[in-house]
């Protein structure tokens, strides 16, 4: 089949969405389909377009057996309501225009959401191209945006909710990353069955390497400090202020915050204002170097805001942390907590509980045997159940079935 896959975020950008979509594209191509990925010019999360993509409106690249079309977007480093609106809406219009200009026929159109504008573009193109539509849901939106205060206007919220419902009703097949999302989407009146295709990891890419661990520690003068690392986006949803609150009560630990995002400048300023001596910030690490950072940590932190909507979320970094065979302090309740406890891979602390975070870190520092057991248990668990390649193959089957039924 000829498959069009729309995603706003894609490699060489770094992140969970990028990894998931690249694996899905590769699986579709490996199944023998002619795959075109339609995405933005690389700019996330900095909002600065990569120099190699600044001179044209549209770029066409070749990847692992599939084509990639990249379109211009209104990207800006400063994240406000207006700049985000411009960012998302320009992708919608540019994606539709680029696809129509290509005059290609497709047997199935696939899109991932959020943002909703990507799925909206997919739905529009499926109608224009007279092809069935498949949507992959990674977050509940606009519910999550409202919970974080990013979408407070009731008129805009209702409009986004109507768009969300139209997307679900217009899809021939729907996949979602958590069981909670599946239930919520079904409750919204989706016309198609919703299949759980969870996030996952690549255990082969996160195997702990002693040389990588030692090199990272030497390079950054970590010595024999007990290191707790958070690796990922520094945004509103992650609630990383809890690290600054907890750090003074865990003085023997060194907290590393690794990555970029809209909240990072404010976090760094607040850290300096408080004089937190045991918190350090690191730039975003290329995908090839993440395993070494994880190996250099004694404990990995996975956290989200305390907003109730996040009980249905399972951060993909939870699976990567398990694959790295490192004990986890998880500050996400609900489905994610159930996975952690089933695996025996770490300790749960309620979201936003700084005292609990400090106590959990110090308890783990005192018990290296427990850290070893948790790390080994987590790696065995994700290797058996959450290998992203198997999930991508399952997704390819769902897309093929939707396209074959046209």
SSE layout and pairings?
Elements: E1 2-6, H1 16-30, E2 34-40, E3 58-62, E4 67-71, H2 81-102, E5 108-113, H3 116-129, E6 133-137, H4 143-147, H5 154-170, E7 173-176, H6 179-187, E8 194-196, H7 210-219, E9 226-231, H8 241-246, E10 253-258, H9 264-274, E11 279-282, H10 287-296, E12 299-303, H11 316-323, E13 328-331, H12 335-343, E14 346-348, H13 354-365, H14 368-385, H15 388-404
Parallel strand pairs: 1-2, 1-5, 2-4, 5-6, 6-7, 7-8, 9-10, 9-12, 10-11, 12-13, 13-14
Antiparallel strand pairs: 3-4
Helix pairs in contact: 1-15, 2-3, 3-5, 7-10, 11-14
| Rg over C-alpha atoms, rounded to the nearest angstrom | 21 Å
Overall shape: it is globular
Largest sheet: 8 strands, mixed
Low-confidence stretches: none
Order of helices and strands: EHEEEHEHEHHEHEHEHEHEHEHEHEHHH
Secondary-structure-based class equals alpha/beta
Count of DSSP H/I helices: 15
Assembly type:
single chain
Residues in β-strands, percent:
15-25%
Tell me what you see in this structure.
The chain has 406 residues and is an alpha/beta fold. It has helices at 16-30, 81-102, 116-129, 143-147, 154-170, 179-187, 210-219, 241-246, 264-274, 287-296, 316-323, 335-343, 354-365, 368-385, 388-404; strands at 2-6, 34-40, 58-62, 67-71, 108-113, 133-137, 173-176, 194-196, 226-231, 253-258, 279-282, 299-303, 328-331, 346-348. It has an eight-stranded mixed β-sheet, sandwiched between helices. It has a six-stranded parallel β-sheet with strand order 11-10-9-12-13-14, sandwiched between helices. β5 (108-113), α3 (116-129) and β6 (133-137) form a beta-alpha-beta unit. α1 crosses α15 (388-404) and α3 packs across α5 (154-170). The model has no long low-confidence stretch (mean pLDDT 93).
